[in-house]
Amino acid sequence: MKKLTLVLIALMVIAGTSCAKTEKKQLMGVVTPSADHGFTAESIRHGEAEAKALAAEHGFDYRYMTAAESGEQSNAVETILGMKPSVIVLWPVTGDELRSAAQSVMDAGVPLIVYDRFIDGLVPTAEISGDNVAIGEGAGQYFNNYFKNELARGKVNYLEFKGDSSTVPMERTNGFLSTADKNFNVVQSFVTNWSQQTSMEQMENYLSTKSRAEIESIQAIFTHDDEIVFGIVEALKNYHGPAKINIKLVSGVSAGEGFMDLFEHSGLTGIDFMTYTFSPSMVRDAIDLGYRAMQGETLEKSYKIPTEMIDKTNYKEYMQSDLYKIRYSL
């Protein structure tokens, strides 16, 4: 009887060891756009670093996938969903085109965190983004103050360079229009797909095809991203036509290292620059929310990451801030 008991105990130990070896870890899935410009490239580095650090600290697995097109992102979501994840963090290329894939995550009972570009008609576990409406509103107020004297005399013409057709540019534009003086007149609005090269070509085309009077009437440029500003700056530096450039203010969004150089070394005279903080490291907050959802924590439906205006009066102080240091910590 004693020998039988020992055999049973040994079998139980072996069985327990086998179960421990085959016990499945929790899995976090992350799907983001691929690196089509500097902001997303930096974001991917921060997102992967945060997922890797959390997985090592808390003992879960993660799968990080990037895709340039909505169809590829949908496939990535389906691939991860087949792995039985505990949560999926999704940064859509275009929200509307990811609705079906996102809904399949919700239908499977998997918590879904949507970052940056939202999906109309879908209520995920949580949404998180920079405060795009506040960025637009702040830019409108800044333009009002900057052009106070000009607005008192009449119209101020400006060009707008949007990012794409997602919810982000819509929120920034609507925010701007809600606070900007009614005497601001948008002469033309461009869609750049967040591309420095595209914005440069669009600005060059404007300068080469419009009349002298039309070119000289533009006093401001409102953009949705620092990368767009870089393209516009290059086009303005390369312009040698007959028109006088009367642009006084160019705005951006991101407040990256390259934009800081514009305050003293843009190569353009008589033009001021202003931007809003929108760090690639914000994706870390989305990954953190994903981990909290994995733990069963009840999340709020919406999170907005605060933004700060940066211009020539405060950029040196900003470059000493924790926000700036974290952005360039990798």
Structure description:
This protein has 14 helices and twelve strands. The chain has two domains: 26-129 and 280-305, 3-Layer(aba) Sandwich (Rossmann fold), CATH 3.40.50.2300; 132-253, 3-Layer(aba) Sandwich (Rossmann fold), CATH 3.40.50.2300. β1, α2 (38-58) and β2 (61-67) form a beta-alpha-beta unit. The longest helix is centred in the N-terminal third of the chain and has 21 residues, at 2-22. Mean pLDDT is 93; it is low at 1-15 and 17-21. With 330 residues, it is α/β, with parallel strands linked by helices. A six-stranded parallel beta sheet has the order 2-1-3-4-5-11, with helices on both faces. α8 runs parallel beside α10 (226-237).
Task: Summarize this structure briefly.
The protein has 330 residues and is α/β, with parallel strands linked by helices. It folds into two domains: 130 residues, 3-Layer(aba) Sandwich (Rossmann fold); 122 residues, Rossmann fold, CATH 3.40.50.2300. 48% of the residues lie in helices and 19% in strands.
